[in-house]
Amino acid sequence: MQYTEVMARYGELSTKGKNRRDFIGRLNGNVTKALRQFPALSIKPKRDRLHLVLNGENADAVMNALGKVFGIQTYSPVVRVAIEDFEQVKQVALEMVNEGASEAGMSFKINTRRSDHNYALDTNDINLAVGDFVSEARPDLKVEMKRPDVKVRIEVRRDAFYVSYLTIPGALGLPVGTSGKAMLMLSGGIDSPVAAYLALKRGVAIEMVHFFSPPYTTTNALNKAKELTAKVAAYAGSINFIEVPFTEIQETVKENVPEGYLMTVQRRFMLRLTDKIRAQREGLAIFNGESVGQVASQTLESMAAINDVTATPILRPVATLDKTEIIDIAREIDTFDLSVQPFEDCCTIFAPPQPKTHPNLERARYYESQLAVTELEDRALAGIKVSKIYPEDKFLTRGMTSDQIADLL
Ligand code: ATP
Ligand code: MG
Fold this sequence. Notes:
The chain contains 15 helices and 15 strands. By secondary structure, it is an alpha/beta fold.
């Protein structure tokens, strides 16, 4: 089928006025970014949908990229036929029926809508004329009104007919950026990349904050977090990656805080630093990959003892998901295989054998107050590095020998 355009229907768009304009404007910008590798494509935003005129670009490749853009409910590849050329509409409809109903006994339906009511034929005339043409060519098929195997839609507008038969589910959600900006705490694990994807899905423009502790953690662990960011960036166009040196804080905590509270105090530092970075960069909230009860740091008591350091909203998109449900999403967004590669991150290395699962808030505060919190944090903040990561970026194989690459596979 030689498609001429792809029509995308807007997703959840209950708001009106200025919000609607923001939504459409932002979606248009995000689609343009996601489809920048197709130079001939032209994008035309309309009130209730977006038209992507292919101008010779490959429809499947375009739809593949479009399928990752949040804010789109469904999309359809469409053939445009000039308004003088009704005979051509019949041919296109037949081709579509042939594609969708290859076996004898299957069923079809022609469904016409007119926005140009001046056109000579009305919707019934068109349905009949096209239906008859298809039936003659395919006498083995039935016409079925309720649940046809193929439904060919014909839209009559002033300039042309628009013919389609496929409706493909879009990524849903809200256009990235329409919900403001937030920081996402990214480890190298399975959960936080999934949390990142879910935050983007609700329209939040995220920036990744990643703590690393050289020489205890390797360059590979850092590159793994960057490569995970590249995977997630497929849903955002690009994502800023903020790396925070955490070695001095972890060493200091390890030396000075009783073992049962190591984890809680470390996490309080992480959250407080993320919150400072958020304030500097004018983010509105913090996302993380915590899931209730999954590990010691994720009991409600633990969350309370860690969350104590800030009043900023902390959002936990995977809080109520089971690990298997999180893994399903990780596979869908293609982060799983990377997440399970064994590069230890800073938390695993400094994890005490038996962290308190029910830490006491007052004690956590007390142990922490014995440390030079502000100075430690200022030094960490002075060492942060920010880089912009794009979906095509690769980090893990850079500078590795072929043996090392083979070890990863
Ligand atoms: P994940 O699979 O995301 O690593 P997890 O179940 O392994 O999660 P933890 O390692 O305890 O749980 O981390 C809980 C959350 O804390 C992570 O989801 C992430 O948001 C944040 N976090 C942990 N380690 C780091 C890190 N090195 N840098 C930034 N954030 C981190
Ligand atoms: Mg982890």
